[in-house]
Design brief:
With 358 residues, the chain is of the alpha/beta class. Helix content is 24%, strand content 22%. Helix 1 crosses helix 10, helix 6 runs parallel beside helix 8 and helix 6 crosses helix 9.
């Protein structure tokens, strides 16, 4: 079966990456691409690297144009998807790459985003450990179980999913204390979108490292707390994280270094076993051999999260270093991987674990 697809926000970075991956999907026909201010222009003016899609023209983003497809991807700025999702009730599968349907807590939304709150959708991080027991005895499963047959999917925030995948095994296994997490991330500016922002000009970021959203203000913090609480091992209010992202001069990539205290009595073998058990059979989330840490260059263009795990007994903390391509595993790749699961297709279709080098 071939599924027809419309992609909104197709002139942006996330929309363009969704299109790049879908272009090689054997079960997908990209029929419609839409934008706002760029509507009426050829897609090739904004995504010149997508040669197989050069025949497409950007249309207006309206519910009427998006309707009538089997699948709609919304790659819009945060707070803009909700105005369309309510009008797309007849579309069999809608996937939102923005934040509008990620959070389950309205108070968290009000505190970090503001504006209208929309119902939460199935969270698009298939490998994330979650409590599948639904208030009975804890039974840890993967988020992919909640994506099977889903009709509404919220793709993750790139920083949030990177940190959540980094730490969920330790939280679920009870070998780290989630009340004292520290995460510092080196991130590429493409994660901030394609709109012109003076502080992201090349002359501002080249040769410099620039912290932002310092002091607990970053919008991905409640998403991380929600994801780690989904393991059932701790309540959201018991998960405390100091989260500091730093823009560095690389177009793509996230390198997240996260640490948390080791729970008394946890052995080195038990700690490493928690991550090995969580990801040992996963294609796209891989624990590196002991003593190895990843680089962002290793995941460029891939739907892969590479994890390095170290145990710092002097500080009594676990150190997890995770590298992802923020536009692939952090956004578009996670969305398409989740789409494949929801449709009952092979999960890895159109997605590569291999990066591009040099």
């Amino acid at each position: 079966m071939t599924y027809t697809v419309a992609v909104s926000g197709a002139s942006g970075y996330a929309g363009g990456e969704i299109l790049r991956l879908l272009a090689d999907h054997p079960d997908i026909e990209i029929r419609t691409v839409t934008a706002h201010s760029n509507a009426g222009q050829p897609l090739s003016e904004h995504q010149p690297h997508l040669r197989s899609l050069a025949h497409l023209t950007l249309q207006d983003t309206t519910p009427e144009i998006l309707a009538g497809h089997d699948i709609v991807f919304l790659a819009l700025p945060h707070g803009q998807s909700g105005q369309y999702t309510d009008a797309l009730g007849d579309v069999p599968l809608v996937i939102d790459a923005g934040a509008d349907h990620r959070l389950t807590s309205q108070s968290a939304w009000d505190a970090f985003y503001g504006g209208d709150f929309h119902e939460p959708w199935s969270y698009g991080v298939p490998e994330l450990l979650v409590n599948g027991a639904h208030q009975r005895e804890r039974r840890i499963v993967k988020q992919r179980e909640q994506l099977r047959g889903a009709t509404r999917i919220a793709a993750p925030g790139c920083n949030a999913s990177t940190v959540s995948l980094s730490l969920a095994p330790g939280v679920a296994a009870g070998v780290i204390d989630p009340s004292d997490i520290v995460s510092v991330l080196a991130v590429g500016p493409s994660g901030a979108g394609k709109s012109l922002k003076p502080h992201l000009l090349g002359s501002e970021i080249l040769g410099s490292a620039n912290p932002y959203a310092v002091g607990g203000t970053h919008r991905h913090i409640p998403e991380i707390r929600q994801a780690l609480a989904a393991t059932g091992a701790a309540a959201p209010d018991d998960i405390r994280i100091s989260f500091t992202p730093v823009i560095v001069p690389m177009a793509r990539g996230i390198l997240a270094t996260s640490t948390a205290p080791i729970v008394p009595g946890a052995t080195d073998a038990e700690i490493r076993a928690a991550w090995q058990s969580a990801y040992g059979d996963e294609t796209f989330v891989q624990l590196l051999p002991e003593g190895s840490v990843p680089r962002t260059a290793d995941v460029l263009g891939a739907n892969t999260a590479l994890i390095g795990l170290a145990i710092d007994r002097a500080a009594n903390r676990v150190v997890v270093v995770t590298a992802v391509d923020n536009l692939v595993k952090g956004t578009a790749g996670a969305a398409i991987q989740s789409m494949n699961i929801a449709l009952g297709l092979e999960e890895t279709t159109a997605l590569s674990m291999n990066g591009v080098a040099p």
